[in-house]
């Protein structure tokens, strides 16, 4: 039996971080459908599960690797946003955060300096804000 599984999986993609996420997502969605009784969660949960199995048994390994890479990048971006929000909250008493009006770069200035001219280190734009 184990040999059969090994043969079946030869040349197939197997599992990765995106599949782990998809299977957890499927469980969460199916639980939600049980709790709420909403059919939409059942369908979304099944879709996540089918996609997860499709990826596991897929022979297009480069494509799946690419998907996992994109998932990883997205995950890092979301995690980075949360880290940023947490940091802003942690030093809300000592720093204020502004976004550069030109290049959207996030800038941090000490609080309590009154009106100050901020110059963006990335694009050199200067603007005035109350710190
Ligand atoms: Zn800028």
Model description:
This protein is elongated. The strands form 2 sheets. Strands 1-2 form a two-stranded antiparallel sheet. It has a two-stranded antiparallel ribbon with strand order 3-4. It has 131 residues and is α+β, with helices and mostly antiparallel strands. The chain has 4 helices and 4 strands, in the order ααααββββ. The protein has 2 domains: 86 residues, no CATH class; 41 residues, no CATH class. The structure holds zinc ion (ZN).
Brief descriptors of the model:
single chain; 131 residues; 2 domains; two-stranded antiparallel sheet; 4 helices; 59% helix; elongated; binds zinc ion
Q: What's the layout of helices and strands?
A:
Layout: H1 2-9, H2 17-36, H3 39-57, H4 61-90, E1 95-99, E2 106-110, E3 115-119, E4 126-130
Antiparallel strand pairs: 1-2, 3-4
Helix pairs in contact: 2-3
This protein binds zinc ion (ZN).
What's the short story on this structure?
The chain is of the alpha+beta class. Helix content is 59%, strand content 15%.
């Amino acid at each position: 039996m184990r040999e059969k599984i090994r043969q079946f999986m030869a040349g197939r993609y197997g599992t990765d971080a995106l599949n782990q996420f998809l299977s957890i997502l499927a469980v969460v969605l199916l639980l939600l459908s049980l709790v709420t009784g909403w059919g939409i969660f059942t369908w979304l949960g099944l879709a996540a599960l089918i996609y997860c199995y499709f990826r596991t048994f897929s022979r297009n390994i480069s494509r799946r690797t690419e998907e996992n890479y994109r998932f990883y990048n997205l995950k890092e971006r979301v995690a980075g946003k949360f880290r940023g929000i947490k940091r802003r909250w942690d030093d809300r008493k000592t720093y204020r955060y502004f976004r550069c009006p030109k290049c959207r770069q996030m800038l941090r200035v000490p609080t309590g300096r009154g009106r100050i001219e901020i110059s963006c280190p990335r694009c050199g734009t200067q603007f005035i804000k109350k710190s």
